[in-house]
Amino acid sequence: MKVSKISDHITKISKETKDVPAFLPTLNRNTSEEVIRKWATTSQIMAEYKRAYKQIIVADEWMVHTRLRRLMDDLAKYFKDDQSMSKKYRESKYYEEMLEKLIAHAFKCDKKDARKKSDISGNGNIFNTLKALWSKLNWRRPLLTLAVELYGKHGNPDSILAGFGTTVYLANNCITAKRIAFNFLLANAHRATMEFEAKAAGDSGAAEKKKDPKDMNFEEAKEMIYEMIEVYLDQHKEYALKSSVLEPTKYIYQLRNQEHNKNSNDVHGYNYPAAMVLSCLHVQLPMIPMMGDTYSDQGFLDVWDVEGSEEMWKLFKKPENFGRAFTGMKKPLGKISFGKSMKSKPPSGHFKDLGKVPTPKFIANVAVNPDTKYDNVRQHIGKKYISKFAYFFTKQFFLKKCFEVLNQEAIPEYIGFPQAFQKVFEEYKRLKKAQNEEIKDATVNEWLYDEYFIEIQIDRVWELFTFLNITKPPEKVKVIKDVPVGKSIKDWVLAAGVDEKLASELDDQGYDDLGWMISKAKKEDLQDMKEFCKLADETYDDLVDILEDWKIKAKAAKPESKTTK
């Protein structure tokens, strides 16, 4: 099986994306795979989510791309290239034969003994458990069969043996846990196949020893960086969902003494926000959400509708708490004052104006349903969920963190990044010189840092990341100004003639850029908002976007037609 290059998969995503609405009027007639594919290949963003989308600095294709999606596409292509194989891999008899071989390979035993083996953690009989797993996976069955076959051919016996404990444990639990077991097997089979093919191509020991980046050309260095970005972004997406929804939810469950719901959050509660992020922003997470999950009352909570919950966000959004479990956060959550209704409202599994949510695909489809009866729901999702998730992909949060983690070679997968990035810089210098824009610095670190190598010029990191098509160009990103807060946005929007309801919504958002505009307006003693916006250069465009994004159906006057009172 030929494993695709990451750059090829990124190009594939770009070609598949269509400018069509995300809403699915025939939702119940679509399979989960069809729903996921639809939302992952749609580019239209609804008004309620545009501000959040515009602040995301990561390129659209990378927000869709995940390692799991790439390997699933590789496996699917394997069937497409040989149609006769699809039927064979759907047969239970062939799956059982491949499963026997996998277990025999791991235990180094005869096939007849393979069916008797249990995992070393004592979770149960391997053959019977994974046979039952296959029967529960429907459209995933051919992929699982192929993964088991490839893993048995190319996997390291000791690694397979160690992995059986996790796989059997998950496969013995609910359907969502079974899906995680499927993902785990696929990832291991894909990794083993990549290592095998690298060795077969003559790059002996490729899994342990990569080609020295100093000896790479630009395209090779770019692909190496892509491999690192794939790993980093998968983790960053997981952390973003944890900090914006999952960990705050677990904390509320703990305060409610609902231990089962807290423990079910990673399994069932995960699917609902993951589905919303996919439909609203077309962002795929490393673990594909189970669209048909029916256990919303076990782990899913409209956490940002809990009275007083917004106080939590101030702590969860801090860089030092990113991706952390609420139990290990740098600053304690105990000082937050919640409202009296926190213990019971909203109830688990319920969502604002919708009542009990039946499935993840239902709430995700409602989130992109243009029907006016869902206006309040869309506004709530945009304001309370999508904006928080997107925050972790803004320029001020994502760029420096991503670069420094890679450049410090924090984990083995990132080893070689500084040398590969130097190769990219040399190619960038060459192109700039051809455009009569010569860069005199010899090394990428000299160009990125100040003379003392302390302060990084983050816009130059952005420049190189955009050159690699990892980030969007500046003209496609709305950058939130890093300015002091302190002035009332509500006062400003009221002076601009915007109705009080909208003013309160904007005030809740805490837009730092508007706070800066207010203080500048007072300093210049300007009375006319249009005159002020001209003085503030492009800030007026930002203001118009903000008002347009959040006024949804409100009868608010345009700011340029009003003057301050």
Subunit arrangement of the protein: single chain
Radius of gyration: 26 Å
Proportion of residues in extended strands: under 5%
Order of helices and strands: HHHHHHHHHHHHHHHHEEHHHHHHHHHHH
Spatial strand order of the main sheet: 1-2
The overall pLDDT average reads 82
* Share of helical residues: 55-70%
Q: Helix/strand-derived class?
A: mainly alpha
- Spatial gap, N to C terminus: 70 Å
The beta-strand count equals 2
Comma- or semicolon-separated keywords:
565 residues; mainly alpha; two-stranded antiparallel ribbon; disordered C terminus
Summary?
The chain is mainly α and 565 residues long. It has 27 helices and two strands.
Walkthrough of the structure:
By secondary structure, the protein is mainly α. 58% of the residues lie in helices and 1% in strands. It contains 27 helices and two strands. It has helices at residues 6-16, 32-40, 47-55, 60-64, 67-81, 83-88, 92-107, 111-114, 126-135, 141-154, 157-171, 175-200, 218-255, 259-269, 271-281, 310-316, 360-366, 375-391, 395-407, 417-434, 444-448, 458-467, 489-495, 500-509, 512-524, 529-535, 539-550, and strands at 350-351, 355-356. It has a two-stranded antiparallel ribbon. Helix 23 (489-495) runs antiparallel to helix 24. The longest helix has 38 residues, at 218-255. The chain is globular and about 70 Å long. It starts with 5 loop residues before the first helix and ends in a 15-residue tail after the last helix. The model is unreliable at 204-209, 481-490, 492-499, 510-518, 524-542 and 544-565 (pLDDT under 50).
